């Protein structure tokens, strides 16, 4: 089981580094809390340190998931989180060695159906799990629920109680951070469609395809705040199409396998846009658009230049 301990420790440091690098404040403090809690194992037996962690971990996770953090890690608004972790670190060095503290955690008889490592800590875990689950149903975000379970899993099975603490929450944190980095690199944040890098990657080694460009004149003239609202509504409409769609320089690029597919989808798209009203500040309006398309004539840059020339002629 030493492998799981090393696995957890590695991903906790990795998650802390990635969260700092990508400025994800919440994951930074959650990862830091896991490392701070580990100080309980420095001078105390494993079982006594387990009692301490199983009691405080659900409370810290719940608190950090509910707290409104500043966008900057080292800011005055986040000083409370740092102070809390310092206090937790001090308690982690003292309380696990306190006989009265350990005896108190073992004397509860709250549950009859299951004997957990720490009954009070298990109750805190269930309450935190319930709260994050209900919050997840409301926000459609179950990552907090999953990470709390991953952080607490080694306390749920009796066979693991004699081993060093391990968890899977930090692995989930790393996956989330790297996946978000991938989306930032290859996808537009507003429309959620692939960007130029994603399009270049998609077209790699493809020779037979048709490419279309959808242009809206109003986008370049509208205010930036209005552009965002308009783009989101257009993107919602375009998702009805079964086509590969990308967003480059305020234009939508569509890729089709053959001419028949291009004609069918573009005909439907043209009809859809002409008969769909967009809403902006309680006013309905129709966007003027231009749609041009062609067969692949070379590389991506040549295709886009050719489409833009056609656009000027329409």
Automatic annotation (TrEMBL):
Show the stretches that span the lipid bilayer: 6-22, 49-66, 78-95, 115-133, 140-157, 163-182
Keyword line: Membrane, Transmembrane, Transmembrane helix
Provide the protein name: Membrane protein
User: Which organism does this sequence originate in?
Assistant: Campylobacter vulpis
């Amino acid at each position: 089981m030493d492998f799981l301990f090393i696995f957890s420790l590695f991903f906790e440091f990795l998650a802390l580094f990635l969260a700092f690098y990508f400025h994800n404040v919440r994951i930074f403090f959650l990862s830091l809390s896991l490392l701070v809690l580990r100080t309980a194992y420095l001078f105390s037996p494993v079982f006594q340190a387990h009692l301490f962690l199983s009691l405080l971990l659900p409370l810290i996770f719940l608190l950090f998931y509910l707290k409104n953090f500043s966008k900057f890690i080292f800011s005055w608004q986040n000083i409370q989180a740092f102070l809390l972790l310092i206090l937790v670190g001090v308690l982690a060095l003292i309380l696990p060695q306190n006989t009265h503290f350990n005896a108190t955690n073992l004397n509860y008889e709250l549950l009859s159906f299951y004997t957990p490592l720490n009954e009070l800590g298990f109750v805190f875990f269930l309450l935190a799990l319930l709260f994050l689950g209900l919050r997840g149903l409301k926000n459609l975000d179950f990552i907090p629920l999953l990470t709390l379970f991953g952080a607490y899993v080694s306390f749920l099975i009796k066979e693991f109680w004699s081993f060093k603490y391990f968890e899977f929450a930090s692995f989930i944190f790393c996956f989330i951070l790297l996946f978000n980095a991938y989306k930032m690199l290859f996808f537009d944040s507003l429309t959620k469609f692939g960007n130029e890098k994603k399009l270049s990657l998609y077209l790699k080694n493809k020779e037979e395809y048709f490419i279309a460009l959808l242009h809206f004149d109003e986008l370049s003239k509208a205010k930036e705040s209005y552009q965002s609202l308009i783009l989101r509504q257009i993107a919602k409409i375009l998702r009805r199409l079964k086509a590969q769609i990308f967003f480059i320089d305020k234009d939508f690029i569509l890729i089709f396998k053959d001419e028949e597919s291009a004609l069918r989808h573009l005909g439907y798209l043209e009809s859809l846009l002409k008969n769909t009203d967009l809403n902006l500040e309680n006013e309905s309006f129709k966007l003027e658009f231009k749609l041009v398309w062609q067969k692949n004539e070379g590389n991506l840059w040549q295709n886009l230049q050719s489409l833009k020339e056609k656009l000027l002629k329409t």
